[in-house]
Amino acid sequence: MHSGVVIVGGGQGGFQAAASLRDEGYDGPIALICDEAVLPYQRPPLSKGFLTGKTAPAQLQLRPDAFYAERNIEVLVNERVTSINRAARNVTLASGATRPWSHLVLATGSIPRMPPVPGADLAGVQTLRTSVDAQVLLERLQGQGQPDKPRRLVVVGAGFVGLEVAVVARELGLDVDLLEFGARALQRSVSAEAAGYLSDALQRRGARIHFSTGAAAFVGAEGQVRAVRTHRGDVLDADLVVVGIGVEPDDRLARAAGLAVDDGVLVDEYLVSSDPAISALGDCARFPAAYAAQPVRLESVQNAVDQARCVAARLAGKPAPYDKVPWFWSDQGDNRLQIAGVAAAGDQAVLRGSAAEGRFSVLRLRDGHLSAVESINNAADHMAARKLLAARVAITPEQAADTSVKLASLAAVPA
């Protein structure tokens, strides 16, 4: 009996792998194992439209039940893989059952970090990663089960989730304090110019940002968070705390199974792990990329989707190395940040346009080529830069800064 493909993880990547296998003509069994109690859903709206009520729970679902039935994709919800047996080619589930596979796809995603400080287990202190997290936060924002609606929110971490939640909270009328251990927001993600613009925009909305400090303790009463004590010794009142200090790849199953792991499952350019019968994709995979000196691990919907398509094509007999230009977006109120490529710490940052006008880009240059672009409210630059990145077109700092030079026109010029 052909045991088919088992996909571990019901996020965007796991869903796409299953759907793309059928699109590519794969006719063997497919089992998609989801450790949440719902069918695969979108995560980006959880820190944005879902909290404001603009995105209803039903709108999060990627596909209805009928989609999986029509394509003969078996979906196991509220089920968790506890171990991988590479020799027997099966996985053991939390229920005690085993599932055989001819190929295993790990799309296990990532795990939010929580600071190891006192009070982290208090009610009202949470991360935001899953639909359950978002529903709990929504109910708390609405004051369900509480005498009063919350008035004070403390966000720990000025990454994308932290900034997005802070913007939404201000839209809902909450007082907001944001703590960031680094010297600025988005320190590992974008240039100082783009981060500064978004930080300033948030502060104009009335939020208070505290840089170079973090949460030393969460202070509570009767099991509920009431304040956050910072490393500086300040005490900030809080009815709610959202922690957004980054994630770690969920590579626990791979590590226990003896696969090569280094801050993510190590894969080759075809997304094959150290075991040729096992692939990994999305947030949990570290892969070689033409645009980076070292293997990288990316946390984005685009990366998960495109890697899933790459794996599905290979399993359907159409192998090709993964070479997509990465891109990402973040909506923060009336500002949209779009990123393409991956910049390194030493890459030159060239401002294109005017931050004062609220529409500009920061082009990152390395060795005479674009390494990344960060566009704020400038979709045209973002789309053009994606083509430049894919074509490895040469560009000078002068061309990058000159808004009279259309980026799209440079895409036709050979490097």
Percent strand = 25-35%
Distance between the termini: 52 Å
> How would you write the strand order of the largest sheet?
3-2-1-7-19
Report the major sheet: 5 strands, parallel
Average of pLDDT: 95
Number of helices, where a helix is a run of at least 4 consecutive DSSP H or I residues: 12
* Shape estimate: globular
- Total number of strands: 25
Poorly predicted spans: none
Radius of gyration: 22 Å
**Structural class by sheet pairing and helices:** alpha/beta
Oligomeric description of these chains? single chain
- Helicity level: 25-40%
Task: Characterise this structure.
There is one protein chain. The protein has helices spanning 12-23, 49-52, 57-60, 65-70, 131-141, 160-171, 192-204, 252-256, 301-315, 379-391, 397-401, 407-410, and strands at residues 5-8, 30-33, 73-76, 81-85, 90-93, 98-100, 103-106, 110-112, 125-126, 152-156, 175-180, 208-211, 215-221, 224-230, 235-237, 240-243, 247-249, 265-266, 278-280, 285-286, 327-332, 335-341, 348-354, 359-366, 369-376. It has 415 residues and is of the alpha/beta class. A hairpin with a 2-residue loop joins strand 24 (359-366) and strand 25 (369-376). Helix 1 packs parallel to helix 9. The radius of gyration is 22 Å and the shape is globular. The termini are far apart.
Short summary:
The protein has 415 residues and is an alpha/beta fold. It contains twelve helices and 25 strands. The radius of gyration is 22 Å and the shape is globular.
Q: What keywords describe this structure?
A:
five-stranded parallel beta sheet; alpha/beta; 12 helices; 28% strand; 415 residues; globular; 25 strands
